[in-house]
Amino acid sequence: MCDIATMLDSTAREIGLEYDEHAITKCVEYISLLYTWNKRTNLVGKQNQYEIASDLCIDSIHLAYILQHTQYPMHNIIDCGAGAGIPGIPLRCFYTLGTYTMIECRQKRVLFIESALRRLMLPDTLCKEGRVEDICPHLALDAIVSRAFMPPERLLPFAYQFLQQGQYLILMLHTDITSMEGYKSIYSYSYIVADKERYICILQKQ
Description:
- By secondary structure, the protein is α/β, with parallel strands linked by helices.
- It has 7 helices and 7 strands.
- It has one domain (2-205): Rossmann fold, CATH 3.40.50.
- The protein has helices at 2-15, 23-40, 49-69, 88-94, 107-120, 132-135, 152-160; strands at residues 76-80, 99-104, 125-129, 143-147, 168-173, 183-193, 196-205.
- Helix 5 links the parallel strand 2 and strand 3 (125-129).
- The chain is globular, with a radius of gyration of 16 Å.
- The N and C termini lie far apart (45 Å).
């Protein structure tokens, strides 16, 4: 477990992320909780805690850095298809400004997210059970974030209907985005995980 904490801390410090003294502890506790639940009910495909940390939570640290340093107003972020709380829960361990709402339709994943939120007591971090298209229109939002919710070619028109002009779509990708009809690319960020390049792109609805 110490190795996981060291890895998270090293990644955060390397990119210049500022965080409070409890962030690493909470993130490690989340990883442990996810590992325990995952043995009973399949939530993620990872087999051990180190894989959960290195392949899933590292993305959240990079997203936290971007949100911490962005000049764009993103006080209310909606997470489409939150799954087991990735990227949202580890993100909120490191970045706590504004309100972050996770939407997930699969009940066992919602139960896990709610359990994790009760344990970690992350500020202004919520979970809504149901379909994105039913819940999103009733929420205040500045940005939508997606990690593996649906392919970009489907996600862009899907998210477009919920965003107002000038609002943002944050994509977490394993390949860079090439088509963005209806949007303007305002920020692109790449980083390496397990020797492979990953991307975080911020698009603005036009």
